[in-house]
Specification:
binds calcium ion, 11 strands, six-stranded antiparallel sheet, 186 residues, five-stranded antiparallel sheet, 1 helix, mainly beta
Length: 186
């Protein structure tokens, strides 16, 4: 009987986890093997790091000289405005002077080609001390938009930028899991 109960519990948990994960509207949110579906203007400072990640290895790593400012822009996400959305990301930064934030960019059309306004931005409280920090924001998308893209940005002010991003989640509020613990060090 005990074995059957454990099996029922595990199956139930797996079903719930699968349902929640399926609601993440971002492609390649865990950077398992590459940076596909994410875009940047200065690709020489970005790479996929298969030795570090949160909660699992594989993350987007930015290393750049002083004063470099660059970000990863997600694939275009078609979504209706006027609804609440959650954006959640995990960041680890080894530098002292970096400025790190994530932004929801909104577009009036359905192909991320017209607009690009910043609907909402979350600023990580740096320095992070090289431990993993989770940031999240909830906002209401402006009415009338047709699509959004997520922008993950690091700026190294006066020092070498050395930032890892991982496990990025975006979707209608309540559809993506929110970790209650706000700060974790591996
Ligand atoms: Ca990962």
């Amino acid at each position: 009987m005990r074995h059957r109960c454990w099996r029922t519990l595990l199956v139930t948990c797996a079903l719930h986890a699968g349902a929640a994960a399926a609601q993440n509207l971002l492609l390649n949110p865990d950077f398992d093997s590459d940076l596909s579906h994410w875009h940047t203007n200065t690709s020489n400072v970005w790479s996929e790091d298969n030795s570090v990640g949160f909660p699992a290895a594989g993350s987007a790593h930015m290393v750049g000289p002083a004063d470099v400012s660059d970000g990863l822009l997600s694939d275009c996400i078609v979504i209706a405005g006027g609804q609440d959305v959650d954006l959640i990301a995990n960041v680890k930064d080894a530098s002292t002077f970096s400025s790190i934030n994530m932004t929801i960019r909104t577009y009036s059309d359905g192909a991320c080609s017209s607009g690009g306004d910043f609907a909402s931005q979350y600023n990580f409280a740096t320095p992070l001390g090289n431990g993993w920090m989770q940031g999240s924001l909830t906002t209401t998308l402006p009415a009338g938009i047709g699509s959004v893209a997520i922008f993950l940005r690091t700026s190294g002010f006066g020092g070498m930028a050395d930032t890892h991003w991982d496990h990025i989640r975006f979707g209608p509020t309540g559809s993506v899991p929110v970790r209650l613990q706000s700060f974790e060090v591996l």
